[in-house]
Amino acid sequence: GENVEQHPSTLSVQEGDSAVIKCTYSDSASNYFPWYKQELGKGPQLIIDIRSNVGEKKDQRIAVTLNKTAKHFSLHITETQPEDSAVYFCAANTPPSNTGKLIFGQGTTLQVKP
Amino acid sequence: NAGVMQNPRHLVRRRGQEARLRCSPMKGHSHVYWYRQLPEEGLKFMVYLQKENIIDESGMPKERFSAEFPKEGPSILRIQQVVRGDSAAYFCASSPPGRQNEKLFFGSGTQLSVL
Lengths: 114, 115
Fold this sequence. Notes:
The complex is a heterodimer of chains A (114) and B (115). Chain A is mostly beta strands. Chain A has strands at 4-7, 10-14, 19-25, 32-38, 45-51, 56-59, 62-67, 72-77, 86-93, 102-104, 108-113. The model of chain A has no long low-confidence stretch (mean pLDDT 92). Helix content of chain B is 0%, strand content 49%. Chain B is globular and about 40 Å long. The termini of chain B are far apart.
């Protein structure tokens, strides 16, 4: 079945450094890849997403890259701040069902040390 | 514009009881999704509904679980005869019309604990 693998499971960086989280998906038909940030006790919040017709997308300190051939996509956070500390999830859609079903990765716990 | 509203935030049930989880989507959103999250894991899709219709329930257990999204009122996820393995965080999400598989906005979840 469809699967999304996410690495690393935990990531600790110093404030100001960059953080990179990587995901691999199995369904070659997937064409939508969102990233969610989940803080303790809260629901996941969409922070950035990318469609398969684009190789890279940037929003201030956050960027996502997509390699369709290798079925890899990555989240890049530059100039990290303590408030970036959270669990980050990647996900991929499951066409052609077009039913809103997203397959999530296992999550990455990011800790930004002041 | 209020976000996705879920209640209760915490629900404690004894084995064999029923759990009823409620979700009101964002204003203007017509698609509702339920996901389950076990500790230290990602979210698992359960069901996708539009008003009065179940579109995809491929992630729902065949027994004891049901979902509805009536014409009026919130979406309800119902778990009958709960067991300890049902303990999890249940998240509801909604998306705008025409974007049923993108831009999902999640609520804060209901933490279900089965004693």
